[in-house]
Design a protein that fits this description.
326 residues; mainly alpha; MetI-like fold; 14 helices; 69% helix; globular
Length: 326
């Protein structure tokens, strides 16, 4: 399964992880490696362009629009026009303005939550894998408990019983229910790495466990972590939109999820107001596709067996000449 899937928590292929660990020197994701990814892998380039566009909209979009997304215009539930590019809501709010402001909120909290989830996975997974023994048994038990629990239904249950609603609440709920798979993958790779020669050498030289975990083991798992964080961000954005659609977030703020919530509450589908719910849906799909394409590229970077190497034109020319000679 590809790392770019939007399953509850994206699966990490064992073959990819094994291939990654065989090449510790290449896992630092140096600038040259990133440049090679962008120039030689069209998936990564397209994904970076899509994600970069949304990040740019999130950063400067509200500065250019400079309108109140909750302001009510006289035109109620108006179709897209020159005055209102994406139409208006039942209250007369401009959908295009809401989409621009919602992009900032959704991307900001989506990426922050994805990073937060990944940090938890890294700390828990590397700690369990490095120390082993009783520490590993206890942490593995906790990981397995969270793995067998359905993540999104559990997030809905927790969010429903939290008295205060808001983006931070959604972030905490998603983080609590989404860290286990990444931690399990990193634990497994750390278990196979902790007996390697360079780890034994660092341990013999008197390095602390903290130094070995975060300065020796962690850099050799950056490809897996990078793929995990991107896949997690995809899930987080979808889960956040889902929780807000169910009214479990702060419905007074403007985001892609709350746009869905108010469109559903006001029967936009029955009224034929497709312009109310379609734009945020397209944005979520495009952003998810862009992140997934980057994930596919990192997957191919980590596992050479997934790579499609380009044959130089000179060699292709010689091969054609040989075929013609035959």
């Amino acid at each position: 399964m590809s790392l770019g899937t939007t399953a509850p928590i994206p699966n990490q292929p064992e073959a990819t992880a094994e291939a990654t660990l065989k090449q510790p020197g290449r896992l630092s994701m140096r600038l040259a490696d990133i440049r090679r990814l962008l120039t030689q892998n069209p998936k990564v380039l397209i994904g970076v362009i899509i994600v970069g566009f949304f990040v740019l909209v999130a950063l400067i979009g509200p500065l250019l629009v400079q309108k109140d997304p909750t302001f009510s215009y006289p035109d109620k539930l108006a179709a897209p026009s020159a005055e209102h590019w994406f139409g208006t809501t039942k209250l007369g709010e401009d959908v295009f303005t809401q989409l621009i402001y919602g992009t900032r909120s959704s991307i900001l909290w989506g990426f922050l939550t994805g990073i937060f989830v990944t940090v938890i996975s890294v700390v828990v997974g590397l700690t369990a894998g490095y120390f082993g023994g009783l520490v590993d048994d206890i942490i593995s038990l906790i990981i397995n408990v969270f793995l067998v629990l359905p993540a999104f239904p559990l997030a809905v249950l927790i969010a429903a019983y939290i008295p205060f609603k808001g983006s931070i609440t959604v972030t905490i709920v998603i983080a609590l229910t989404s860290w286990a798979w990444g931690a399990r993958v990193l634990r497994g790779q750390t278990l196979s790495m902790r007996k390697r020669d360079f780890i034994e050498a660092a341990r013999s030289s008197g390095e602390s466990s903290f130094h070995i975990i975060f300065w020796e083991i962690l850099p050799n798992q950056l490809a897996i972590i990078a793929a995990n964080i991107i896949g997690t961000v995809v899930y987080v954005i979808l889960a956040e939109a889902g929780l807000e659609f169910l009214g479990l977030g702060d419905t007074t703020t403007v985001s892609w999820g709350t746009m869905f919530y108010w469109a559903q509450n006001n029967d936009a589908l029955l009224l034929g107001a497709w312009w109310w719910f379609l734009p945020p849906g397209v944005c979520i799909a495009l952003l998810g596709a862009g992140l997934s394409l980057i994930n596919f590229g990192i997957d191919e970077y980590a596992d050479p067996r997934l790579r499609r190497e380009r044959i130089p034109k000179a060699i292709l020319r010689k091969l054609r000449m040989l075929q013609k000679g035959q």
